[in-house]
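user: can you give me the structure for this one chain? tokens are fine.
assistant: on it. calling the predictor now.
[tool input]
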Amino acid sequence: MGYAGDVTPKECWGILGTDKTAILIDVRTRAEWSFVGLPTLAKGMQPLVTHEWQAFPEMKVDDGFAADLSAKLQQQGANYGTQLCFLCRSGGRSLAAAKALTTLGYEKAYNITGGFEGDPDENAHRGNRSGWKAEGLPWMQG
């Protein structure tokens, strides 16, 4: 599989709530954080880490993503056994990010299925059918 596996947004929330070392990493773009919103974490949870997998507007994958994120995580106290939950819009970029960190030796890199906004509904709107927002988890407008 190349990573620790998939978790739902609510399963990730449970991990973050019970393992005080676990970290949520949002790999969407700065534009998405600003215009779509960001997860809000509860008191006692590790701070949200934001680190773009691709930079808007070119959407070119950051070649230094894994090494740069690993350095940022280690500065925050993470190690190769820390549970890492990766989030993007709908689960594609976060899957790639979880695999990238796994290649560096992180043993518990999870992809959050459905991402922040999930799949489009019958009206082509995201945020209603699946994902962080649809599951009723806390978030704020960027």
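assistant: here you go. The beta strands are 5-7, 23-26, 38-39, 49-50, 54-55, 60-61, 83-87, 108-112, 139-140. The chain has a mean pLDDT of 95.
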